[in-house]
Amino acid sequence: MRFDHAGIATADAAATAELFGGLLGRPVVHEERFDGMDVVFLDCGGGYLELLEPNEDGPIARYLDRAGPGIHHLAFATDDVATALDRARAMGIELVDEEPRPGAWGHEVAFLHPESTGGVLIEFVEH
């Protein structure tokens, strides 16, 4: 596995993309409306920043209400999300997703519960 992206919850993905794009000198490489969010990816050379702006009530809107803007999750690329989930399950880690599901960019994804991962929401991504 390797680092894939950091998901950042924000109330304004375009403004956050402009901020980080200018600060880091990195381009926006993908934008989409997906699962109740506007999602913007910045290429950071070796990984991405995934900016998550809710456009309806859902997990990111609730996260922003509870915690405010900031890092929401860390994602790691894997060749096989189902196998990565099996490994986590065997370790006794609580899963948010029992099976892979569709994610941004058409990738298969699955999340691990932060109560089992040191307070960090972890996402597995299969490209």
Rg, Cα atoms, Å: 14 Å
Subunit arrangement of the protein:
single chain
Q: Tell me what the CATH architecture is.
A: Roll
CATH class reads Alpha Beta
Unreliable segments of 5+ consecutive residues: none
Helix content: 10-25%
- Superfamily (CATH H level) name: 2,3-Dihydroxybiphenyl 1,2-Dioxygenase, domain 1
Order of helices and strands: EHEEEHEHEEE
| Helix segment tally | 3
* Beta-strand percent range: 35-45%
The CATH topology corresponds to: 2,3-Dihydroxybiphenyl 1,2-Dioxygenase, domain 1
What is the end-to-end distance? 12 Å
How would a crystallographer describe the biggest sheet?
Answer: 8 strands, mixed
Q: How many structurally independent domains?
A: 1
The shape is globular
Physical arrangement of strands within the biggest beta sheet: 2-3-4-1-5-8-7-6
Number of DSSP strand runs? 8
